[in-house]
Each structure stands twice: as structure tokens, then as C-alpha cells.
Amino acid sequence: MILSDDGEFLLVLSDGGVKKVSTKDGKVTPVKVKGEMVLKTADERAYIFNHSWRQLKKKFYDPKLHGVDWDFYYSEYKKFLPHINNNYDFAEMLSEMLGEMNASHTGSGYRFNAPTGDRTASLGLLYDYSHSETGAKVAEVLIGGPMDKAASKVRIGHVIEKIDEFGWSKHFRLALVDLNEESLKNNLFSETAAVNRGLQVLAFDNEPEAKDWLLSDRGTMR
Fold it and tell me: Is residue 163 assigned to a domain?
């Protein structure tokens, strides 16, 4: 918390953001902050490698390190760093080095995270395309998918008739909009597969054309 030079407001760091609080009436105004960071991933991995090696050497419960020549393994494994260009391989290499200590609760793991990755409306289901009545009949629930949860009541043989307030039938239209030229090719393949099964699904490279098709009376398939 910082008081402005004129005493008119306070700058407060709260809930992960910066807020401006008036000293006169207590009015709170969010302060927009935008920043960019250039991450040198190779340097970051080198730092983590050195830090991990150093921490184990200083804090391992056995001062004699199980008789292991820890300095030797530092040199042996560090030579791999220039040839690693991703965190998965780095975690594997680091885990191998820590494993030389032959001690429990030592190792390294990698957890993939893509905060800007693709977000789809896929339910993680395969459907019975021989089903000719209203709705979509579930043929399989994909393992690890959105419906493969203990709380989910969806099972093989169930018929999905509505999603929210929208009915599901072969007359239902779905427009896929993909601005990426490369991934659009994959969606065009999905479009063909859907059309071959009698579904009205088209992929577009822009929103205006997609909206025109969805709102048109004809719904012409190409």
C-alpha cells in the first residue's frame, strides 16, 4: 500500500491486481496494468538444474550423500542441457540425475499447461449414426473426456435430446470458425465426415460467412 505524494489516493495491491483508493470518499478504482516478459527458456532450465543440484547437496539428510560423487554427476548431466529444447525432456533428464542418489522422494516431473490452448465444445462422446430418431445416441464415452466423470450420468445408449435449450437433431446446423489456415484443413476434414453422416456441419475461415449460413433459410451444403 502506497500513499500518493499529494495524499489524494492510495495504491493497493489486492486480489492479484492494483487498485486506486480515494482518501476522500473511499472510492475504489481498478488500475489496468499490462506487461510483457521475454522468457529465456534455456537460461531458466540451466538455473533450475543448478538450483536442484545445489539444494540436494546442501540439504540431503546424509552429509556423505550415500557415498555418491555428486560433483561428478553434475558434470555428467550438465552437458545435456544445450541439447534440450523443451521442459518435458528437461524434467526427464533432471529426474535421471536425482535418481543417481538412490533415495526416496527424489525426482522431477512435468505438467503440461496450455492457458491459451484450443477450447472446444466437444463432449468427449462417440455417437451411433444409425440412430434415425430425434437426438444423438451415445455409442461410447471417451476415457478422460468431459463426460468421463463420476458425477456424469451419461452412459452408452443414452440419447441426448437437448443441450441447454437447444434441441438436437439431424436438422441442427453447426458452423465451425477457424482463422488458422493450417488447423482449418483439419476442420474441413471433420466437415466432410459429418456431412457423410447426414449432419449439417460446415467450416469457415471467417465469422460473417458462418453467420450468413446459419441464418439462411436454405442452409445449402457445399
Answer: yes
Give the tens place of pLDDT for each residue, 122-161: 788 888 888 888 888 999 999 988 888 888 889 999 998 8
Q: Is residue 49 part of a domain?
A: yes
pTM given for the model: 0.45
pLDDT digits (tens, 9 = 90+) for 99-124: 999 998 888 988 887 666 556 667 88
Is position 116 within any domain?
no
Domain interval for residue 55: 41-99
| Same domain? 24 vs 51 | no
| Number of domain units in the chain | 4
Q: Report CA-CA distances (Å) from 52 to 67, 92, 98, 168.
A: 18, 14, 9, 54
Collapse the DSSP code of 147 into the 3-class scheme (helix H, G, I; strand E, B; otherwise coil) and give the result. coil
Residue position matching grid coordinates 447426414? 198
Q: Quick one: which of 123, 159, 118 has its CA closest to 141?
A: 123
Calpha distance 106→62 (Å, rounded): 14
Residue that is written with C-alpha cell 488458422 in the block: 180
Residue 23 gets which letter from DSSP? T
Q: Is 177 part of any domain?
A: yes
